[in-house]
Amino acid sequence: MTNEDYFPPAEKDGGWRIGDPSELGVDEELLNEAIRYHADNEDSTKKYGGALLIIYKGFIIGEVYTTGTLGGPQPWTQSTCNDMKSSAKSVFGTAVGVFLEEYKDQVNLETLLVGNSREDSLIPQIWDHPITDERKKLIKVKHVLSMTSGHESNEPWLAPTPRHFYSGYSGSYQMYEYCFGWWYFDGIPAHRILRFEPGHGFNYSSFGLELLALAMRNITGKMVGLYVYDRVLAHIGMPIGIRDNQFKEIPYRTSKKFNFSDEPGWGIGGDEGCNAYGADRGKSQYGYNTIVSSTFPCTVRDYARLDYLWLKKGRWRNQQLVPEEWIKKATKRFKQADGGSMNYGFTFWILDEWDNVPDDAFMTQGNNMNDSYIVPSLDLVVVRQGNENHSNEDRLNFRKTLIQKIVAAIPRNK
To answer: d(Cα 349, Cα 89) in Å, to the nearest integer?
Structure first.
C-alpha cells in the first residue's frame, strides 16, 4: 500500500499504524528532543498534563501522554478525551465548506448574514428586535469565517458578573440573544455595537461563527454537529459519541477551565439547560444548536483524523468529503477590504512566516494550547492537547518551538 492509498481505520477497528522513525528516515535524536520538550515542560505540560501525537506519512512516530502533577486527567491515557477548545472552529470551518457546496444555490461566501431585511436574512431571528448596529447588515459569510466581522472577543463562559437587558428587550438570557446584542454582562464588552465595519479589521471572536451556525441550522434543519458528523466525521472513523453526546453544561472541572471528559462529544447551547457564554440555562424561543467555537472533547488520535483529512485536501479513501477548493481557500490568508491580511484564513491559522517551518503549514488553535499542525509538504500532522494557559507571548513561543523541533527531525522530500 502506498501512502497515497493509506487511510486509518477507526480506532475500534485497529486505528492508526505505528512506524519505526529510523526506517522512515526520521532523525530519532531530534524527534526525541521534541517529545521531551513537550513532556518535560514544567509550565505547559507537567503541572496539568498533556498529550502529543506525531504522524508522518500516515505512521505514528511519536505518542506520549503526561499525567499532571497538580491536576487534569488522572491518568492521562490514549483514551482520554480532552476538549480541543477553539480548535473546534476548524471543524466548523470544514462543515461550512460542505454546506456551501450542498446549498450553493442559496448561499456563498459573499452572501449577507444579517441582510437588509428579515426576508433576505440568513438569520431572520435577529430581526425580532431592531438591529443594534447598522453595520451588522454588511456582515458577509466570509467575514465571520475570517474573523473580520467586527464582533467582540470576550467569552464569559462562567458568568462572572450580573446580566442586564438593553432597553427594548426583556426575554431570555441565552446564547443567541447575547450574540444578537440584546443583553450584556457588567464590565464585559458586548455585541450591541461592532468594533469596526465588517471586512475592515481583524478581531478573533466566536460570536460571528455562532450566528453562521444558526444560519446553517435554519437552512439544513440540523444542528451543525449532526450535520458534519453525518457528512464527514462518520466517514473518517470518528466515534459515534461525537454525534450523540451533546453537552448542555460546559463541563469545566475547575476554575482553570479544564473540561476533559470520559466520552467524546460536542457542546450545545441556545436553550433551556445550557450555560454557553454564561447563559442562565433559561428557556429560549430559538432552540438548541451546536456550539461551533469550542467544546469538542475527543482523543488526540481521533482529532488527528481531521488533520489527515485536511492534509489530503478533503479526500478520504475514494470519497471527496470536503471540496478540495474549499480546503485550499480555508488554509490561505484572507485578504481584507484594504488588501491587507492577518495570518488567518477561514477558521485556520496560517504559518507561512514561522522560521524553519515550511510555508504551506497551517494549524488549529485552542485555549490551554489544544492545537494541531498540518504540514502538507512534509506529509506531517501533529496534535497536542493540554490544560495550561499562559500569556500570549509564552503560548506563541511554546507552539513555535514545539513544531520547529518536530519539523527539524523530519527528512525533506526530494
So the answer is: 11
- Mean pLDDT (the chain) is 94
The pLDDT tens digits of the residues spanning 102-155 come to 999 999 999 999 999 999 999 999 999 999 999 999 999 999 999 999 999 988
Classify 55 as helix, strand or coil: strand
User: 234: which residues sit within 8 A by CB, 6+ positions away?
Assistant: 240, 243
Angle formed at CA 281 by CA 289 and CA 121, multiple of 5 degrees: 35
Which residue intervals of 312-391 are DSSP H helices? 324-330
Q: Is the peptide bond before 156 cis (omega within 30 degrees of 0)?
A: no
Q: How far is CA 144 from CA 111, 211, 292, in A?
A: 11, 9, 12
Task: Please give the Cα distance from 284 to 118 (Å, whole number).
Answer: 19
Task: Give domain limits for the chain.
Answer: 1-80+351-414, 82-298
Check residue 74 and give its pLDDT.
Answer: 92
Looking at CATH, the fold of the domain delimited by 1-80+351-414 is given as Beta-Lactamase (3.30.450)
CA dihedral sign of residues 344, 347, 351, 352: negative
Question: How high is the pLDDT of residue 414?
Answer: 45
